[in-house]
Design brief:
The protein has 329 residues and is α/β, with parallel strands linked by helices. It has ten helices and seven strands.
């Protein structure tokens, strides 16, 4: 019987201060090479030296299409690939080494703490972890923002909401607001702002809260950049935060809290949309389980990890045009 796969963990892309070198290191890494070989590819096609970075990333994007079981669906509705136990083990080990895992925050003080919404569980777990970091004195933050969208629940989200005592909720923004209020023990909002449109993708809103200690907390539903086609995505949420919610200043530190499996693609989007244009530093971590409230741990399949490696590649494709001469995040 073969030994379990083992790979050295790569540092978070951008943490070295040389963003392009970090991306090249990721493309030439042992865990990515193992994934490529596992699915019949040649790692040399993507490592440095043979072609421009943008061309190699575009080719890797095409290669990872074979992992795309979402086909435009929400993550919890994606089909599963037919993988052997050995393949699944290697995929999960390689994905974790590539950066789809949680780490502790690198600093003690942040100007902004951000959390994206997502499926119901994320709308509870991420704010809960953020509040625990602050409550336990592990970090301090100038302000807290949770970023979501008016996305209707799908699949097992109705059941999850019912388990949390939120059976009357029907969309992500409602769940994110409920999760944030529960985590930070918030009363009614101090004020609200927003616009409603017939097309839900164009609707946006911000609820402004303050904790008992005076910490500003905002719950945001961002509008979509393509309101007639889809809901707001990660890029829309970051852009709305930067342009409408926060007055970012060069040198500020942002802590982004995600779920471990989504850390790297969400981090890279934040580097592209927030760090590089505004001169801020972005640190991204995965939320750890808390008891406020206790939720069943998610067991992500190898297919789910492959989907997020693909999301990482697609985030790198968008980042590539900005990399020449860059030192960021």
């Amino acid at each position: 019987m073969s030994e379990p796969a083992a790979f050295a963990r790569l540092p978070l892309i951008g943490a070295s201060g040389d963003l392009r070198a970090d991306v090249e290191g990721w493309l030439g890494s042992a865990p990515l090479a193992a994934l490529v070989r596992l699915f019949g590819g040649d790692p040399a096609d993507y490592a440095g030296g043979r072609a421009p970075l943008a061309d190699r990333l575009a080719k890797l994007d095409l290669f990872t299409e074979q992992w795309d079981t979402r086909q435009g669906l929400e993550r919890n509705l994606a089909a599963e690939l037919d993988l052997t136990p050995h393949q699944s083990e290697l995929v999960i080990a390689a994905a974790n080494a590539l950066g789809l895992r949680g780490e502790a925050p690198r600093h003690r003080r942040y100007d902004h703490m951000l959390m994206l919404g997502g499926l119901v569980r994320a709308c509870v777990a991420r704010p809960s972890y953020a509040a625990e970091l602050i409550r336990g004195g592990e970090i301090t933050a100038g302000q807290v923002t949770t970023l979501g969208a008016h996305r209707p629940f799908a699949g097992n989200e109705f059941e999850q909401a019912e388990q949390l005592g939120w059976g009357d909720l029907r969309e992500e923004y409602e769940a994110l607001d409920a999760g944030t209020r529960r985590a930070f023990e918030l009363g009614p909002p101090e004020h609200e702002e927003g616009e409603r449109h017939e097309d839900v993708g164009g609707t946006w809103g911000i609820k402004h809260y303050r904790t008992a200690d005076g910490l500003p907390v905002r719950v945001v539903a961002a509008p979509s950049s393509r309101p007639g086609t889809r809901r707001a995505d990660t890029a829309d949420s970051y852009t709305f935060f930067a342009r409408h919610v926060a007055a970012l200043r060069p040198g500020e530190r942002l802590l982004l809290i995600s779920t471990a499996i989504y850390v790297l693609p969400q981090h890279l989007a934040a580097v592209r949309i927030l760090a590089l244009p505004f001169g801020v530093e972005v640190d991204t971590v995965g939320a750890l389980p808390t008891n406020r409230p206790r939720l069943p741990l998610s067991n992500y399949s190898a297919t789910k990890y492959l989907l997020e490696v693909r999301s990482t590649v697609r985030a790198l494709v968008r980042l590539a045009p900005l990399l020449d001469g860059s030192a960021a995040a």
